[in-house]
Amino acid sequence: MGEQLSSEIWFQIAEWLFFALLTVALLALVAVTVRRYVLERGGGAVECYLRHGTGTARPWRMGFGRYGTDELRWYRVFSLWPRPTAELSRRGLVIVGRRAPTGADLAELTSDLVVIEVGWLGTNGSDPKEPVYEIAMTESALTGFLSWLESMPPGGVWRP
Fold this sequence. Notes:
Layout: H1 2-40, E1 45-52, E2 61-67, E3 71-76, E4 86-89, E5 93-99, E6 114-120, E7 133-137, H2 139-150
Antiparallel strand pairs: 1-2, 1-7, 2-3, 3-4, 5-6, 6-7
């Protein structure tokens, strides 16, 4: 009888633990969904992938960029953190290169995306020697990005 009672208690503990973990997982999913809705509701957001530097050593991170007046704020999709993971200042931002995803990129990206390499002008106005970030986005999102980049009002002193 003691053995049967013990197995019933363990079964109840396992059942409660399962439902507690299921509840936590559902709450996390709802929180991620609400966060994304709140961040995208003001408009000016575009889905894109971001990778620091160049090369296959670093993974692509899925997220979305939100256009601001002075910077592109990039947020991870699956995160609860309310602040952007990266902020790309528009002042001095230039496109270093544009390409289709390579064979190694296609393990994480789809073939309909375009990869652009971006960096910032040097303090003396020279072009960057190497890109700081790579951004992968659709053609239509790239058109919006280029429009945002080129529509910066003139004037002001650029500070790195």
